[in-house]
Specification:
The chain is an alpha+beta fold and 326 residues long. It has one domain. It starts with 11 loop residues before the first helix and ends in a 13-residue tail after the last helix. It is built from 5 helices and 11 strands. A hairpin with a 4-residue loop joins strand 10 and strand 11. The chain is globular and about 85 Å long. The strands form 4 sheets. A 5-stranded mixed beta sheet has the order 9-5-6-10-11. Strands 1-2 form a two-stranded antiparallel sheet. A two-stranded antiparallel ribbon has the order 3-4.
């Protein structure tokens, strides 16, 4: 057979080179697709916070006050309740009484603004004076997944069952990827009504009470469910806030129920591997989105300094920090 009649074929080396080139191209394509998806998720998350900001301002315009972090009507006459007290233990949970203090009715900031995020139907089903968040009567309300409270990059957002401090499974709730800012430092579990931020238990602040300036004060920030699952509806008596399994942290602390709706800037920078359930924690690479009091949404880099973050978390600390200090 002549040389011209022989069948042309790839050598093994040529085949391996082609496979390698195709693999590289696929890898580049997948990376590009992931970047596009994350960019879209980041935009959607920012839009969620923007809509929440508009709702908060509309609520304040309608009522003269910002909503509380959550509502509490006081202790039961025949049960455990009242302001919680404990020895100074820093920011670690103390006796189990912190978990058994009733938090009724417990409705949180995200429920109060429902009419302003096109959820009037859910809002009209709630008795804000006597109805308890965890009551079976509110099945179909508290376990409704609302897209505005879901970060698209948050893989554990959705329905979940809170647990008590003795591991009892509590009624099903829907998660919130965002939390109200309690302030800088302080103990959310033991002193839920003493926050120095824009929201705390039974808070009823006006925009004029934000003396550091609304553009310099954090209102709402991301605390992704993949870090810790918490309900948008409010605070569940006897419930706990725990680090989610598989979260990128070293610790697995358990916090009392007031932390279900509030987070703070504490002793750790954003997305620190030592973060605790009442810390803000983002689902996006490199940044955490925050809603400021003026309605602006900013992606705060996880490299932002702790003193600046703490200054931005307070409503009237007199600090000179501003978002441009990042």
């Amino acid at each position: 057979m002549s040389l011209a009649g022989r069948r042309r074929a790839f050598t093994l080396i040529e085949l391996l080179v082609v496979i390698a080139i195709i693999s590289v191209l696929i890898g580049l394509l997948l990376a590009a697709v992931q970047k596009v998806r994350e960019a879209a998720a980041r935009i959607k998350c920012e839009n969620n916070l923007k809509q929440i900001g508009l709702a908060l301002h509309n609520y304040e315009s309608a009522t003269g006050r910002l909503p509380p972090a959550y509502a509490w009507i006081g202790p039961k006459k025949n049960g455990v309740g009242g302001p919680s007290q404990r020895p100074d233990l820093g920011d670690r949970p103390g006796p189990t009484t912190l978990y058994t203090v009733d938090q009724l009715p417990g409705w949180g900031w995200a429920t109060y603004i429902l009419p302003f995020v096109e959820q009037q139907n859910l809002y009209s089903q709630i008795d804000f004076t006597n109805g308890e968040v965890a009551s079976w009567f509110y099945n179909g309300v508290k376990d409704t997944v609302l897209p505005i409270y879901v970060c698209p990059s948050d893989p554990l957002a959705g329905q979940y069952n809170p647990r008590s401090y003795v591991r009892v499974i509590l009624p099903q709730m829907a998660t919130n990827s965002y939390a109200a800012c309690y302030g800088a430092l302080g103990d959310i579990g033991a002193a839920p009504d003493q926050g120095n931020g824009a929201f705390y238990r039974n808070s009823s602040l006006r925009l004029t009470d934000i003396r550091d300036g609304t553009s310099n004060t954090i209102f709402i920030g991301e605390r992704a469910a993949y870090f810790t699952q918490t309900p948008w509806a409010g605070v569940v008596s006897n419930g706990t806030v725990q680090v989610s399994p598989g979260a990128p942290t070293f610790l697995n602390y358990v916090e009392p129920p007031p932390a279900m709706v509030m987070a703070r800037i504490g002793n750790h920078t954003l997305n620190d591997t030592r973060s605790e359930p009442y810390d803000f924690f983002g689902a996006h690479p490199g940044t955490v989105p925050f809603l400021f009091g003026d309605g602006a949404v900013r992606q705060v880099p996880i490299s932002a300094s702790l003193p600046v973050l703490q200054a931005l978390a307070t409503r009237a600390g007199g600090e000179t920090a501003n978002p441009q200090d990042f």
